[in-house]
Amino acid sequence: MTFRQFAYRNVVRNRRIYAAFFMASVFSVMVFFLYSMLLFHPTIEDKFVQEIAVIGMGVAEVILYIFTLFFLFYSMRAFLQARAKEFGILLHLGMARRQLQKLIFIETMFIGVVSIVTGTILGFAFSKFFFMAVREIVLLPSLPLYFSWQPFALTIGAFLSLFIIISFVAPVFIRSGEVADLIRGEAFEKGGREYSKGYGYFGLLCLGAAYAMAAFSSNTLLIGSVFIIPPLATVGTYYFFTDSLPLLLHMVKGRKRLYWKHYRLLSISEGIVRLRENARMFFIVTIVSTLAFMSVGILASLTSFASQYREMNPLGLVYKSEAENPLESEHIAQIIRELNESNIDYYYRKIPILYQTSSYSDSTVSILRITDVNTMSARFGHLPYKLKEGEALFLPPSASTYNQLNSRIVQTLLVESDVSVEISGAYPYQLFPSHSIGTNAIVLNEADFKKVSETTPISGLEPTAYYAFDVPVWQQTKDIGLTINDDVTESFMLGTTSSLLYSFDNPGMNYSVIRTTFSLLLLIGLLLAAVFFLAAGSFIYFRLYTTLDRDRKQFDVLRRMGLTDREFKKIVNRQLLPQFFFPWGVAFLHSAFAFLFLQVVWDALAEISIVKELVYVLLGFTVMQILYFYLIRWRYLAHIKAPG
């Protein structure tokens, strides 16, 4: 038998241990290849989609590469430590350390090459389905499957270099102590370090502080909290598993009524041992799971923003013109012409907006006529409002301000026109985009509006022409008014918007950009989260199977002592449940408080609720974790009961 054959048979013999490592590697390669296929797709002509694809996929591939490198390093370290006894025997039989390093190099490269080939083949096989999903997301006419050497070269080159690095560095993980220590293997390492009460309380304090800051954060503290909460939670999580949890478990051991009870004694004592052995692994699983939850949760909240965008922008198009704007007629004619050429159904109304100084607030107030408001309201199926002379309504700048304004009654004088009105309550429907009319706006009846308009030429406060376009199929407007929008964007980039005499808002075009961006990011995030989730489960999987021989001997002794099958399953459940669900539960708790903080961010930015989407995310991960637990438990029980 040659040296290469010996290395090959080593891998095959340990295939049970390497299974999760191999599957996670294959999945990482497959996802990386799918990203590469979209990155180099030749038929994406839309510049915006190209930029999103290049930036999004590029960043995702870098994250995936770095994470996979970390994952493989950690995995190889665990594997090699678990095989310490085997390496000790080989050294005892005369194998040189250089030969041992060569053996590990060949084994690692064998697994790496097979993973790369399998992942690349699976990636190409699923490329068509991936392109179909992307095509639906970005509304492209077609996104055909293609064959190019570039995605293959990038994927194979990236992961081959990664496995070469690991193959050279992996032998460093083997303890350089005496051969006798290696032969003693895992038993030599058992026990871990003693916990510290000080660090234990410090970990709980860090987590408590992070949770409190996330739960009670406000708009004024957002920026500072973003930089404080993540490191505080990370440090707290580490000390929680290494010190806080052992401290709590030893408190449980002190309660004899709870601890000294049948198989509970064995479960808790074994749990303490496993915790001390696997504390760092639990920490890593928690952080990786939190990253998976957060990546999907954040992107799902972005999608929530896109889905609620229509509610915040009920009009299809908005053109706002100052009195001195010489391009007003030309722009309106262009918009109407483009709508007609595209066969888009629309209705538009020119709404004059007047300005007066309010004696109550001593600030400028925007004034609309009730006739204009009722006409637009009827387009959305709302009943008209009637106002008597001297009566007025607040026009809320956004939906969230309605309750606050509806409870107010204000007596004020419109200074320039000398018109006195009582503003009682607020208009209940959002007809215009948020803040597009102004932050301080009211609605007057016909008679009062006419009085104000008659004094406008001598007041010095020029009116504004507000063109409101109601477009039922509003997403079709993404190509309307592109030249006008380009001029507005250029003025914004140059910082000359104050001198611009008009503004233009196209929610259909904005929504197209938002929907494409967020949906692509969500797809990228879901694939990355799947890698994180699989990796988190893999850490637990190979840790269980590296200690399988020891566990089988322990349970064999217990069965000979009279342990029943029912008690045996209870003990296994009580040992596996904490390993699977405790790190996941801590990650769940981290994510729940992080999402509370995220809701504050969205309240400050767009006043939307993301609760429903985040509940779906957490429930989805819960179901997957339960299924994964039962799968691993089934295989673990089968191996434990099997003869050694």
- Shape, please? elongated
Q: Termini distance?
A: 26 Å
Quick check: average pLDDT?
A: 78
- Count of runs of 4 or more consecutive helical residues: 23
In the sheet with the most strands, the strands line up as 5-6-4-7-3-2-8-1-9
- Main pleated sheet: 9 strands, mixed
Percentage of residues assigned to helices: 55-70%
Total E-strand runs: 9
Write down the oligomeric state: single chain
Strand content: 5-15%
C-alpha Rg (nearest Å):
33 Å
* Helix/sheet category: alpha+beta
Poorly predicted runs are 187-192
Can I get a quick summary?
This protein has 23 helices and 9 strands. It has helices spanning 3-13, 15-39, 47-82, 84-92, 97-125, 127-138, 149-169, 179-184, 186-189, 197-215, 222-253, 256-259, 262-307, 309-312, 328-341, 370-379, 402-406, 446-459, 482-494, 507-546, 548-560, 565-605, 611-641, and strands at 317-321, 347-357, 364-369, 391-394, 409-414, 419-426, 441-444, 464-470, 502-505.
